[in-house]
Every structure is written in structure tokens, then in C-alpha cells.
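Data availability (excerpt). The following record was deposited with the supplementary files.
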Amino acid sequence: MESIKRNIAIVCGGDSSEHDVSIRSAQGLYSFFDKERYNVYMVDVKGQNWNVDLQNGDTARVDKNDFSFLLDGKRVTFDYAYITIHGTPGENGLMQGYFELLNIPYSTCSVLVEAMTFDKYVLNNYLRGFGVNVADSMLLRRGEEDKYTEEEIEKRLGMPCFVKPAADGSSFGVSKVKNADQLAPALRVAFMESDEVMIESYMKGTEISIGCYKTKDKSVVFPATEVVTTNEFFDYDAKYNGQVQEITPARLAPATAKRVAEETSRIYDILHCNGIIRIDYIITKDAEGNDKINMLEINTTPGMTATSFIPQQVRAAGLDIKDVLTDIVENQF
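Predicted structure:
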């Protein structure tokens, strides 16, 4: 029986500032997977060093020619890669391209969609063409820091505004800028994380996050989570150091909750996503006082610790995360 189990690689680590967060997600996923059904291994990717973490505490070097490793003198090949790297190379299409070349199915969106969702500026402008509400924004590339004056930025986007890496995970390098004098230092911080920086108008409202996955025979949108923090915004400390209140399901009017779920499903289909994605929104009010749904960003490798949004939402939906992961894996066989 052991021999017919699929071998699952939980691919984690990566080369961004969120390496350790990714390891925690991998540990969460490892605990969730159905071990009766799968042989599950954590594969820590860091630069050119790819290693499988073994049960006895040792590591085994991954042969990148075919994504295999040696265990007790026998070669183990992987049937499936569950990618939980936050940032490069797992969230921007690089790792997906590698698995495409090896013809190994994986848990995330395609190379193109990963590259698009990783670049917030590109994604926003693409989805705007499909009628998705997004904040107004401007892009600066390294070497173009003086392309716009502080006055031009303030006139276009207003104050406060957000300065964030355009292509990176969402936890580092983000600043809420309250006046023009704070723009230059905020840009320096963001350029430490990415060669492209997005300056985005501020939207005041209720921040929510909602997960979704689809298979050949089902479409599942989880209950949304409301994010309440006393910090200036949902930053690293709010995300990972408990400086936040997370309310699942979110306190939304039923009609708004339904519209958020429908918009999430629609965006999933527009991009032809795969696996679990999580979309962050801000619910603002229009001139008539109606709820307006504004997309902030899409996370294609959402956090998967026991307290992360997705496991919370799975529980709130009355589902078992073990079954959800099995759905996602088996959908590609």
C-alpha cells in the first residue's frame, strides 16, 4: 500500500524577506495533509540550496535535474509540488516554470498569472480593464526616483498614500505616507525590497480577506475575514505578531458579503487561477453611502499556519483543511 501513495513536496523557504514565514506555512501544511494518503516532505529552497527535511532531523540534497532525492539509498521522485513560498521564486512564476519543464503538477496558478499577480501595478491595471475597482497608483522604477516631484504625486494621489514594493511579498517595505516630506524615506525603504515601487492612493474603509479555490466539479469561496488593527495598516507586526483582530466571518451586510464572494469567484475565473488564492479588499462607501468593493491584492500562496486566514476560513465554512488540500492535489490527476 505504501508504494502507491503519491509523494508530495511542500516547497517552502525562498529568497525573500518572508523566508521564515514560508517555513511556518509549510509546517502548517505538513500538519494538515492526509498522511494516510500521501508521503509528505518539506523541501526548503534557498538560493541554489534545495534540501528535503527528513523525519530524523537530517536533510537530503534535491537533485534539480529531476526534482528527486535519495532516501535510504533509494531515489524518491515527487508526484506533486505544493508551493508555499512567499515571494521569489515561488510567487512570481519562476518555480512554476521549473515544474512546467519537468511536467510536475503544482498547486498554484500558471507562470503568467503568478508573474502578473506578483506585480501589483501590472495586476491592478489588467483587472481594471475587467471592471474591478482598484486604487489609483503610480509606478517608479529604480533609477527613476526623481521622475515625479512630491507635489505631482500628492496632486495625483492625495495624502495619505501608500508606498509599497510593486513586486514582492506584501509584508516588508510598505509605508503609509501622511505628508510629502515622508515620500523620499518611504521610497528608500520600498526600493530595498524591489526594483519597482508603487505609490497608491489611500482608501478608508473595512479591510477584508477572502479565500477561494476551484476544482473540475466544485467552486468554493470561503467566508471572508475582517481585519481590525490599531496599527497604521495591516503590516508585518499585525500579520505575524498578533497586533490584529481577525473576525471570521467578516461583519458585512449579507448583500455585500454575497457580492464579495461573487467578485472573488469572477476574478479567479478571469485569471484562470489554480489552487487556493486569497484576495484582499477594502470596502468603502460611494457617494450614495453604498458599499463599494475595492481589490487591494491577490495572494496566490497564502499563509497556511494554523492561525492564518485560510485555515480560519476553512473552519468557519465547516470544512476540513485536510479534505481541501486533497481536493486541490487530486484535481490535477
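Summary of structural features: The first strand starts at residue 6 and ends at 13.
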